[in-house]
Amino acid sequence: MQTVDYIVHNAKEIITLKGDNKARSGKAMNELSIMKNSAMAIKDGIIINIDNTDTIKQNYLPLQWIDAENTIICPGFVDPHTHPVFVHTRENEFEMRLQGKSYVEISKAGGGILSSINAVREADEDYLFELAYNRINRMIECGTTAIEAKSGYGLSTESELKMLKVIKKLQEFMPIEIVSTFMGAHEFPLEYRNNRQAYIDLLINEMMPEVKRQNLAEYVDIFTEAHVYNIEESRKILLKAKELGFKIRMHADEIEAIGGAELAAEMGAVSADHLGACSDEGIKAMRDAGVIATLLPGTLFSLRSKSYARAKDMISAGLPVAIASDYNPGSCNLDSMQFAMTLSCLQMGMTPAEALTAATFNAACAIERQDFFGSLEKDKNADFVMLDIPSIAFIPYHFGSNNVSKVYKLGELIFSRD
Ligand code: NIG
Ligand code: FE
Q1: What is the pLDDT of residue 418?
Q2: Contact 291, 264 (CB under 8 A)
Q3: Distance (Å, rounded) from C-alpha 214 to C-alpha 222?
Q4: For the chain, domain boundaries
């Protein structure tokens, strides 16, 4: 008998998502590998085994029993696209959109990303940390056990480094995994509006090398879109990022298909995100290059878009789809991956099973953590949530409140409703 820290038993079902350890597409996105009458043995934050309850009881001696009380257990949600470090929220833009203004119009009129810059430049690290800490805690309450977090509201060397240091401190003090991305190419700061090339030079010659030197980010991201970075500018910045040893992710073809998806394929990006307007060629190029499509339906919902990314076409073309919140102060102030699943089903036609795969295993692939989490399997992290629901379809079906009752990260209980 092997001693373990605890055994989780009495779950209605354990939704393991066990399967091939690479991003899933096509039919595989509907295969959740559901286990009934099963239990999990956990030691040192790792799943030692998941099997039939009797087999687990015969083989492991737990220091503690955890009664799942007939809840459904699934992997913790992974949110592979967030912007949680900023000062003030921008609900004024929400009201402007209600009056019929578009995101691009608001940005061009001095709102948008640029309206978040000054306050971030002026804020000290501790204040930014405290704000982001509270925001990420709300994500945790909604079942998120890993996020990707970007800089991009400083747009100067000093303030971008400050944001990344805040993310580093969050990595240290928060109980979930946080993957860091440098996004100095989120916009052009006002002082470079008439000299874009000079800002690109700054990104290339100073900001990215310094971020690398201080080892503050794993990825470089860029907002490739008609009103921000065009394809040529994006290519130049991303080539340098690769040369410096960063991995690439992109905001691509959110509003207009300008070839962002194709560029993501050319650059070997890990993920291309948004893709609300992505073309057929873009879908094929991404599939062939192994880029994951991370879709952000919350953003298009919040922007009052009539159309959404073509998730079903992507899935049937063999392109793996992940989903994320895109939590940010402007276009999408969404904490909950559960609601991202609701929108994936209602607005993009995904099945609840596809949406769950997109929010867990494929999302883990989109931050290259699939060896550690995203599915519940032997030797992976004990990152799981308990949901007091009758079936998995209930997650997207029941929206507007939290279906998650308990959240475990590396075997530790990090949120409990009671
Ligand atoms: O993903 N697209 C760029 N970044 C955010 C918007 C950020 C903002 O408006 O502050 C996004 O939608
Ligand atoms: Fe974003």
Answers
A1: 87
A2: yes
A3: 20
A4: 2-76+375-416, 77-366
Task: Report CA(6)–ligand 1 centroid distance (Å).
Answer: 42
Q: Are 307 and 288 contacting, i.e. CB atoms less than 8 angstroms apart?
A: no
Q: Which fold has domain 2-76+375-416?
A: Urease, subunit C; domain 1 (2.30.40)
What pairs with residue 49 in β-bridges? 41
Write out pLDDT tens, residues 51-100: 999 999 999 999 999 999 999 999 999 999 999 999 999 999 999 999 99
User: Dihedrals φ, ψ of 321, to 5°?
Assistant: -115, 130
DSSP code per residue over 326-338: -B-SSS-----HH
Find the 102 Cα to ligand 2 centroid distance in Å.
17
Cα 173 to averaged position of ligand 2 atoms, centre (Å): 23
- Mean pLDDT, all residues of the chain: 97
Cβ partners under 8 Å of residue 126, min gap 6:
none
User: Among 140, 97, 106, 83, which residue's Cα sits nearest to residue 325?
Assistant: 83
Ligand 1 in reach of 251 Cβ (< 6 A): yes
Indicate the pTM of the whole model.
Answer: 0.98
Alpha-carbon distance of 418 to 412, in angstroms, equals 16
What's the rounded mean pLDDT across residues 361-389? 98
Owner of token pair 């804020």: 123
- CATH 3.40.980.10 applies to domain 77-366: no
116 in ligand 1 pocket by Cβ < 6 Å?
yes
